[in-house]
Structures are given as structure tokens and as C-alpha cells.
From TrEMBL:
Gene3D superfamilies: Winged helix-like DNA-binding domain superfamily/Winged helix DNA-binding domain (1.10.10.10)
Keyword Chloroplast included in the entry's annotation: no
Native source species: Limosilactobacillus reuteri (Lactobacillus reuteri)
Protein name stated in the entry: Transcriptional regulator
GO molecular function, one term: DNA binding
Length: 72
């Protein structure tokens, strides 16, 4: 889901992506796993709370696409 949103609505910078991922982690939706390698490698996994939002967010995303404002 996050990948779909990023591809459809690109985040302006790596810094903004990092900030967004940290906020999702702080909100308990993602779990950050550092692999402890050089160069650094990090993966993110949905928590149970994050997984519980998959269908809701998918429906909201589809609703947004359907009702997207068009330039006049």
C-alpha cells in the first residue's frame, strides 16, 4: 500500500520519506528493522495495527481516485 501511494503520489525528497516513515513508526503502524550493516540497511514492516488499516486505506485511496478534482 505504501509503495502504491509513493509511486502514485511521489514524495518530494528522501528526507520527507524518512520523516513520513518515522511518523508512521511513532504512530505504531510500522516497525523499523535495522540490519546493522555498512552501508546501513533498514526494512519496514506493518504492525498488527498497520495491517488492520489495509482495507480501510485501500478503500479511501480508491474513493480519492474516483472523486479526484479535475482541472477546469
Amino acid at each position: 500500500m505504501l509503495l502504491v501511494i509513493i509511486v502514485t503520489y511521489p514524495i518530494p525528497s528522501v528526507e520527507m520519506l524518512t520523516k513520513s516513515l518515522r511518523e508512521l513508526e511513532e504512530d505504531g503502524l510500522l516497525k523499523r528493522i535495522s540490519k546493522g550493516t555498512v552501508p546501513p540497511s533498514v526494512t519496514y514492516h506493518l504492525t498488527d495495527t498497520g495491517k488492520s488499516l489495509i482495507y480501510t486505506m485501500g478503500d479511501l485511496f480508491e474513493w480519492g481516485k474516483t472523486h479526484e478534482m479535475k482541472d477546469h
